[in-house]
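Fold this sequence, please.
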Amino acid sequence: MPSLQKTSAPQDRPQGRSRTVIPTHRDKVAAAGSELIGGPYGRRALSGTGQLTPVRVIALVAIGMFALGMVQKLPCYNWAWFRGTTSQYTHACYSDIPHLFAGRGFADGLVPYFDRLGGDIPFLEYPVLTGLFMEVAAWLTPGGGDPAENERAYWLANAGLLMVCAAVLAVCVTRTHRLRPWDGLLVALAPSVALTATINWDILAVALTAAAVLMWSRGRPLAFGILLGLATAAKFYPILLLLPLLLLCARAGKWREYGTAVLGAGGAWLVVNLPVMLLAPEGWKQFYLFSRDRNVDFGSIWLLVSQRTGTTIPPERANLYALLLMVVAAVGLACLAFTAPRRPRFVQLAFLIVAAFVLTNKVYSPQYVLWLVPLAVLARPRWRDFLVWQACEVVYFLGIWMYLAFTSSGNKQGLPVDGYQFAIVLHLLGTLYLCAMVVRDILAPEKDPVRQDGSDDPSGGVLDGAEDTFVTGRAARPARHAAPGMEEGQRVSWGTSDDPNHPWGAPE
């Protein structure tokens, strides 16, 4: 039976524990990897008081990795984008950006959503804020001259703007968990970010979503809502974060803050969309029509099923299957939110719902991994698990391009169908593995690396340390051996950092 009785949460922090968590002191994989740059973080190292603060270091690393990703695209930049299709796949440097400069009318000065395009797609098929981003980059691109040079210039203009987004993303993740700023290095060093950031414009929505999570962690629900609304105006997936927030606010009784966030998100989304919706309705709805009518495509579980069974899954049936699976995922998320022995952290549930959307969607483009990177880092900041997942994603990144090379070269070079299907399965298993680790942390909060220093929900804002007002199942039945007034998942022993029996000093 549900319980409406208020339960305590660990609001009091132990004395002397408000110090920065250093991954090389806690994480064996991080410690081993640090040998490449001189070894683990030392006692006498600068701890944010000098010029090289964590935020500055991570921002510089993120920019450096982004630049390496640009270098990886050099074969395409120099020639492969303009000399047939196979070379850009065999060099794994494909990008939508230069091709859409002419393909979506930017080279001809057409106005997105207002001017009709030729071909099968009558209007730009991107959300409004992304369309504005694309248009701004077109304004920065010199006109005239050779078409190939213009496409190169357009890609460079976009890359410069997207690099800013990458830096914002890394900084926001770094600042979200106050005591764990160095976790932001996982975002900055993520190979999938460097490889996919300039394929499309997804990192704009990802950066806005990370900024929204930062604002929520600071107890600013209106700013969170506004940024989340802007992110949803750039890509659909950020709106999914309102579901886990609803569940957690229901458990903690934070209805006013949730309502503020929803109003902020709706208002910001309307401010961006309403002018285009009213003045160019046909162009505005193209994104939604394209998403609805799109066939089962690369990387999805539906393509895998279709290829293995030899049957075509029509778009309307794939939409229905995906919707049903998302409903199942939402029910599972609600069960976790209300029955977990300790209220889950916001980013844990946010990661799970976005991962469910990625796993059930009709298409999995390589850059969609960007949606999960910041949420994965905040939900499960363990280098081993993150790198296992990233390895799977890098294999998929290479697999899709080699498969496209195979199909576009007349089956002469590249990866055949069976190899590509293996890459899809590896991507699915890698994501499911990380989901399983997050669920384990929710069900056994003492294993949660973020909570091992006594924190409750550093990204939770008003939820951090809040009392529960609605729980059910296991959460409503404190263990008999727990201390009076504490729930089973809230027992924390405050030993010294040298004691391996206590969470502060025990490596996982």
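The chain has 22 helices and no strands. The longest helix spans residues 147-176.
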